[in-house]
Amino acid sequence: MLKITTAQEAQAFIDRYDTFLFDCDGVLWQGKHALEGIRETLDLLRSRGKRLFFVTNNSTKSRDEYAAKFKSLGLTATRDEIFSSAYASAYYIKNILKLPADKKVYAFGEGGLRTELEAEGIPVRGIDEDNDPINFDILHTIKPNPEIGAVVMGFDVELTYRKYARAFTYLYHNPECVFIATNEDATYPIGGTVYPGAGALISPIITALGREPIYMGKPQQTMLDCIMLKYHLEKEKTCMVGDRLNTDILFGINGGLSTLLVLTGVTSESEASTSEIRPDFLASSLGDLYHLTK
């Protein structure tokens, strides 16, 4: 693990790769503020002809919404450079799973997930449809539906037992119905604290079914498979940049990519030095690449 601290090390690092995959929160920004030197670093990499992609486990926003957030922070990112777990789910269903045209997806999650699924031409049920409570008198009306070819579960602040019952029923009565989870994050950070994340919300269905879903988000490799299929990247010339060892860095390691850990997020240098998950490179911040080479 090399810590990048000199102009020579920063330049050699930049020259070594053609493509960079970036986590967002804790790498590019914290909350509503871009981290120092990020705009300049991204501009530097683009000026050197590097390909940039932004990879996030967050499934609540569409790519257009993420692009708008980048713009609000003074950063540039195109829709095609953003790969969220919502878009990964939609891309996987259309291009890898190849869901038959006569099948629909039952999903729970936020509007960003519906937007990405529908943008790929996938019929969606569930999101915005099953927010009402349910009682024992009508629970029995939820029946198997052979039209549902996949169930996609993501972060949902309007989660109800009705949604759980439908998702479980479609999966339990049809073993061929594909079970997909946007990510397995146990917590969701917001407002300086954390709340139960998608992984926690999905766990009751996993327990009831005794069946694991196909996870889209980091550190699982499904999202990377989608990125590689769409953009035809060379793994040996690609580096994953993140602030979490057990998601971002493990994602890169498992996928055969080089990895850079930045210390502007959740992982400290002492944690990095003692962890079994070892990044190839370490930097105090992503902005160091600009400051060291200017």
UniProtKB/TrEMBL annotation:
Is this entry keyworded Hydrolase?
Answer: yes
Broadest EC class? hydrolase
Q: One Pfam family for this entry, by name?
A: Hydrolase_like
Where's the active site on this chain?
A: 23, 25
Please provide the record's keywords in A-Z order: Hydrolase, Magnesium, Metal-binding
Please share the entry's free-text remark on the cofactor: Divalent metal ions. Mg(2+) is the most effective.
Q: Which residues bind substrate?
A: 218
GO CC field? cytoplasm
Spell out the reaction equation it catalyses: 4-nitrophenyl phosphate + H2O = 4-nitrophenol + phosphate + H(+)
What domain of life is recorded for the organism? Eukaryota
Could you say which cofactors this protein requires? Answer: Mg(2+)
Q: What would be an example GO MF term here?
A: alkaline phosphatase activity
Q: What is its EC number?
A: 3.1.3.41
Q: What is this protein called?
A: 4-nitrophenylphosphatase
Organism lineage reads as: Eukaryota, Fungi, Fungi incertae sedis, Zoopagomycota, Entomophthoromycotina
